[in-house]
TrEMBL record, chains A, B:
Protein name: Xaa-Pro aminopeptidase
Residue ranges annotated for the Creatinase N-terminal domain, each copy included: 13-142
Key words, A-Z: Aminopeptidase, Hydrolase, Protease
InterPro entries in UniProt: Creatin/AminoP/Spt16_N, Creatinase/aminopeptidase-like, Creatinase_N, Pept_M24, Peptidase_M24B
Taxon lineage: Bacteria, Bacillati, Actinomycetota, Actinomycetes, Micromonosporales
Molecular-function GO terms, alphabetical: aminopeptidase activity
Length: 391, 391
């Protein structure tokens, strides 16, 4: 499960240009997503620092804990690697980096603004003659996905759609058999297990990411809390339920979320569902190169407001997706980023009616030259998402 | 699943003292663990900031995204709460905080060194007249667990030990039935499901933490990589396997890890196992108030070195555990923290033989006045951890 070498060489060439423009001698990657993006090394983030030095010219250098040496080799990482023994260490990760860079003497080192104050200080002490400067060089590079990344997002999208089907089927099967309906937490475990299993079946080396396959499942009043956790509440006939699922192949994320109704929908359920579906359709179609995130978000949420549901909005239309399940740009009023081909976004307006239920439909959408393309394809119309009671 | 109010009032009184000593007007908590520690509010960490203002005098204030308002209420959070609509927002989280604090005019605000440079800048801009100063006030308070926290760690320890039993039983059952042995990923899913189910069965409101129940399972050569991921490799007779499990109740973490051998151990397996068990026993008994982390770590790892296994060491003896599964202090050569009653530590020396297997035994250990007390109690001797083949 590795991206082709051509991806890494393209990324490095583009980074070198970006550093040149900014007058930086190199970029020091300090987060799992940036390190994976630039080197293909994936690791479990702990307090043990990992640093990837990407000079404008010359060879990259990876600093990892001793613990991860064999794991990096197994992943086929080709970047020159030095290790420190442990955290905090008699010789720290920062000192190890400093010693390795001593002969190379970079003056201006770019870092992400996500770096902690503590790490910034430790690095500044260890890299005596260098100045650390925050830069958006890598953040900008990650905004538009590279062609080599798309198949991985597409693979994750297929798994995610199948997870939705597996969740729906668990409930449908219980209805057919006349057995007890599953609980929220049982459905969550079932679909996550299904997705993880698909991942392991399809790929030789499943690399660590913050999530292989994950999800939230909530029904009835619980679904009105966008960030609650699945509970032991059993699904009941008449329930609205949301399956909010995500998956990542080679840490390329996707989300696919659908709302289902168990049995014949009431007029109320139909109203909220169809308003949300309309907002999602209009908002998704608005995701075109040249428009700003803020404009797209307003176009989408105005559909809900137009239906008199403004009080039931709890969040923006969506967010960027890539090596993180949430990343820039943000499809929200405060983000004026202009959409460009290659950007990958969630489109997920929601309607949350306290005490009743929540309604959310989310696709992962690629902005292409010709318009938006949904990578996730599970049916979105209400008729398809009624889980029939059997009499 | 809430700690008693007495816990929060004690913590606040202790924090006020610590702020007083440091000349700070308050502490601004910016991480999920610090916010949960000080207020009892648990949330899914995303790019949407959560800020908890803890003044030296007066009432705390919580700033959360609109999305989490109902979730906070469900958790019974009693701190005064204001919300901002979304990230990045037309009015940002930082500006919302700034407006709410405008009348209170704190001069010196303590923050954790884990705060990002980006957030530091946004906060500094939004809190005009205030200066942000990094402080260890809360980190120090979290070093020694409070009496009210211990029952939650103990509850997590029981679940963790039972997860080990469930994993072992999955393999033993297949051996008894003569069916195919499970794969690493199947065992991992089984034990995580078991632990999560126990959590939901025992508690009304399971709050979000970075992990409810989790684990790594690796056997044979895979187990020689401390941070690899479970694969689809099936367990085989003769395998060494590690179950590395963790759980958190009310986000109070514990880990319990054991090594098993399938069938009669070879002399080689016995040698590595018993050396690791001896190091774990000696290292655990060394976890006494008054000794430094570095001394304890050396005492522990010297046992492995004494057995000629120094080349197979990949990591320190252990780390602190609390609201995070890894937190200070670090039981490592570079940490000279003096152990005190109330500190909670993992004791987990490991032996990793490339191409053969890994051996690790981990308990979660509470430093008490009278000596170390293991919260986890799964058997540690080799005889108990042989999973018998049935002929």
């Amino acid at each position: 499960m590795r991206l082709p070498d051509s991806f890494y060489s393209t990324v490095r060439a583009r980074l070198a240009d970006a550093l040149d423009v900014r007058g930086l001698d190199g970029f020091l990657a300090t987060t799992p997503a940036d390190v994976a993006f630039l080197s293909g090394f994936f690791y479990i983030a702990t307090e043990r620092p990992v640093y990837l030095w990407m000079p404008r010219e010359g060879d990259p250098l990876l600093v990892i804990p001793r613990l991860d040496e064999e794991y990096a080799a197994q992943q086929g990482v080709t970047v020159e690697t030095v290790s420190y023994f442990e955290f905090p260490g008699v010789v720290t990760a920062e000192q190890t980096l400093g010693a390795a860079l001593a002969g190379r003497a970079p003056k201006q080192i770019g870092v992400s603004a996500g770096l902690s104050i503590g790490a910034y200080r430790a690095l500044s002490r260890a890299l005596g003659g260098s100045t650390l400067v925050t830069t958006d060089a890598v953040a900008k590079l990650r905004l538009r996905k590279f062609p080599e990344e798309i198949p991985f997002h597409e693979a994750a999208a297929r798994i995610c759609d199948e997870m939705l089907g597996a969740g729906r089927e668990l409930i449908a099967d219980a209805l057919r058999r006349g057995t007890e309906l599953p609980r929220e937490d049982e459905i969550a475990r079932h679909v996550i297990g299904f997705g993880t299993d698909r991942m392991y079946a399809d790929y030789d080396l499943v690399v660590y990411t913050t999530k292989l396959a994950g999800g939230l499942v909530y029904a009835g009043p619980n679904s009105a809390l966008p960030h609650g956790l699945p509970t032991r509440r059993r699904i009941r006939p008449g329930d609205t339920l949301i399956l909010s699922l995500g998956a990542a192949v080679a840490s390329r994320f996707v989300e696919s979320e659908r709302t289902f109704v168990v049995g014949e929908p009431t007029a109320e359920q139909q109203r909220y569902y169809e308003a949300d579906q309309e907002a999602q359709e209009v908002g998704t179609q608005a995701m075109r190169a040249g428009r700003t995130c803020a404009e797209v978000n307003k176009t989408c949420l105005d559909v809900l407001r137009g239906h008199g549901l403004g009080d039931y909005i709890r969040h923006r239309q969506g967010h960027g997706i890539g090596l993180q399940n949430h990343e820039a740009p943000w499809v929200e009023d405060g983000d004026h980023t202009v959409l460009e081909p290659g950007m990958l976004l969630s489109s997920e307006p929601g309607v949350y009616v306290p005490g009743h239920a929540g309604y959310r439909i989310s696709d992962t959408v690629l902005v292409e030259e010709t318009g938006p393309r949904r990578l996730t394809g599970y049916p979105r119309d209400l008729a398809s998402n009624i889980i029939e009671e059997v009499r």
